[in-house]
Amino acid sequence: MLPMVRSHQQYQLFVEQQLRTHYGNGSLLFVAKDWSLVKKFWITDLSDTFQLLEGAFSCRGPKSIDPADLLRSYLLMLQVREPSITEWVNQLRRCPLYAILSGFEYGQTPGVGTFYSFFKRLWSHTSVNLSPKLRLNRKKLKGGKKGEKAPTKAYSKIANLMAQLQKRSANKPQPFDRLLGLFQQQFLTVSANLGLLGNTNALSIAGDGTPLQTATQVRNRRLCNCRELGTELCRCYRIYSQPDCDMGWDSYRNRYFFGYHLYTFVAADSFYDLPLYPRLQRASRHDSTSWVVSAREFAVRFRDYTWDKALLDAAHDALPIYEYLHARNVKPFIDWNPRSTGNKGVKKDDITFSPTGVPFCKKGLEMKDRGYDYTRGRRKYYCPLVVKGVVTCDTPCSDSPYGRCVHTYTKHNPRLFPPVARNSDEWNEVYKRRTTCERSNKRAKEDFLLEAAKHRSTMMWTVRIYGIAMCQHMDAWFQESTLDLSSLLLSA
Q: Which InterPro entries does the annotation name (predicted)?
């Protein structure tokens, strides 16, 4: 049977009545720290959860629990930093406050199976993993140096990936679309209306990946007898308990890890570093490859948002990425990667260019920037030895009072000649917000203990990632709210 759904006002009334029943006579202790949890869920409206998941429910069978209560309870579990579903069920039975804030009557809380049934409704795939468990053993990756960005993927590989994706439908359903719909409708929309994402008609989006370790080693079982025959490292088929995971290289910790590569788009203009689109990738994927996949999916699933600026680190310094952004009128703010190449063959007569795209005059001096013409898509440079309209060079290369002028066109090489020049005041002012990705990842990993869970399926890791993203938005609403909830409830 379909669940009985209540409005957010009915939920608030339920919480008020239950708190008065269990905590009003002083038999149970209610400390000041609990008010923050009460307020977060008091102002978070999840009443549309069933409407967004209605297609996952059946009219037959036993009566279902309101999915809003299950989602609310799971978010509360993340807020109190509990990584285990089983232990959380025990806490719901022990602590009246947790049951009440979830929307359950104390003593009538759901079991572990109910939560996992709810998670499966959020996942529109027949299997909890996307890859078959039976696959070939893979070779170990070659690591890099500690703290050094990995070399950007070959331009041809990124260009080929983009060409392959263009042949596929951009509207292809993803298993996490229901989760994303919940996140968009009940969290991103609220944050956008509160102005916490910046200007959604001209969004500045920062993107970055982070390792997500799910186990200390690869979990697999051999099907061959190569070990008995003396071959320890074979490439035969094995059964993997986490088939979507593989080995990746963590350059920060200078070690290999087994798990996923979590790539997240973050609102760069958000004061609270709010995530927009988290996406799980294979651990072996490079940041630039993950960005290509995420950017294409983001453009399709976030049509109401206008992407204006892309803030990316040096791992994304690849010409196909610049061309992709230039074709969509998105300004790139991408750090220069000295290990990448992309300015070969770029010449203009006898003018040479610096690695950052600034032309040199014949004396070897960097020419002066005169600004960018957006109508023509070009930047103008003039002689560096012009002082107050007078050329002070002893060997001028032009009769013009400004000396020789050089125009660089973005369409000729978007990587070398971006609309906003590298190291300019505007570039530095915008690019300093790129670290919002690190702060968002820190919150997920340290504040909400992302890697503390013991899940073995892509479904559960995806649910956990989106749940943490929801909690980050809830915390931002809590900081912005001026509601004095303690006085309101105590007076009642």
A: Transposase_11 (IPR002559)
